[in-house]
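Researcher: We're teaching a course module on how sequence relates to structure. For the next exercise, students receive a sequence and then see the predicted structure as tokens, so they can try to spot secondary structure elements on their own. Here is the exercise chain.
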Amino acid sequence: MDPKNISLEMRDYIWEMGAETLNWCMQCGLCTNLCPWRLVPGETSESFNIRHMQRLGQMGMEGFEDEKSLFACTTCGTCQVNCPRGVKIIDNVRAMRASIVGAGMAPGSLRPILGSAHANGNPWSGPREKRTEWQSGLDVPQFGPDREYFLFVCCHSCYDPRSTKIAKSIVRLLTAAQVSFGVIGVEESCCGESMRKIGDEELFQKLAESNIGLFNGRGVTKIITTSPHCTWSFKNEYPAMGGEWEVFHYTEILDRAVQQGKLSFSRETGKRVAFHDPCYLGRHGGLYEPPRNLLKSLPGCHAVELNRTREMSLCCAGGGGRIWGEVPMGERFGELRIEDACARGAEILATACPYCVNMLTDACTSLGRQDALEIAELSEVLSRTLS
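Model: And here is the predicted structure for the students to work with:
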């Protein structure tokens, strides 16, 4: 085996960037065993070992910076919630990435993403002035003092043609539920959650400071988000920088509206619907019941549970910047999700995250199952049944 260089400076830098729990790791290997990469074959699966990567970081040894190791983690959190020592593994991954990205060595595939977020305020190469084009055909109210909630629409649902349908469905549902909400518009920037997970700490700070100034300046006190990634970031990262608001994922608001009798669904669904728990809604956010309650409220809906659900839900592989990664057919976590849904007789595989929709749609297409299984965002399933 070739000798590896040890850099105490690198080790100390990683700690300073947020990997304070790195030395808590006792190398038991449970994180590696639980990692979804163990469920699929391929070069990335063979290269990525979260236990080994953390050991390299502990020692300040070279090797962890390899793209197929460091940037393979989807930050799904399965390892973290099961770690017997309470190691904050995702913070460690983020800090190790920051040591590379901060030095100007971001992977080539991610540089356009980071560049667009710097220049346009979003990672999807969309001009800022087109951020509100998704509203076409809808009467979307503007946020102001007369509105209780500010609706923050994920960048993905502002620019991606497939995902804009999600934003439209959520607006229709909030309107039907008589929720007092409004949007701000082109001044909004990406929440920065994925940018920070990729390792660009400077970019995250820039985006967060811009949003905090904008939201506080407009008098925002309550936020509804369309993406659980935004929910998580606003709740867990923004308060330390002065962004303190009540933050809700849209499923929480709609679930409450149904329970209060302010929202009901009249059209028969008549479909077998399986729900995929997004990592950032469930494992990270602790929200398992609201989406299930909403499905149960649909007339004629036959809800089925997948093999891996709730705390042990299988990641779609879109988190941690992986939504911009290229993974060969046969090596995608989402394909396992599609097979599971089909085996359980589901006709619709619903989720509550725009990233999951993209990843599961790609997996369904790669398996040729698009005629047998529809991939839908939960809001789309719900809005179809409005009278």
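Model: If you want an answer key for the exercise: The beta strands are 149-152, 181-182, 222-225, 246-249, 272-275, 302-304, 348-351, 374-377. The first helix runs from residue 8 to 16.
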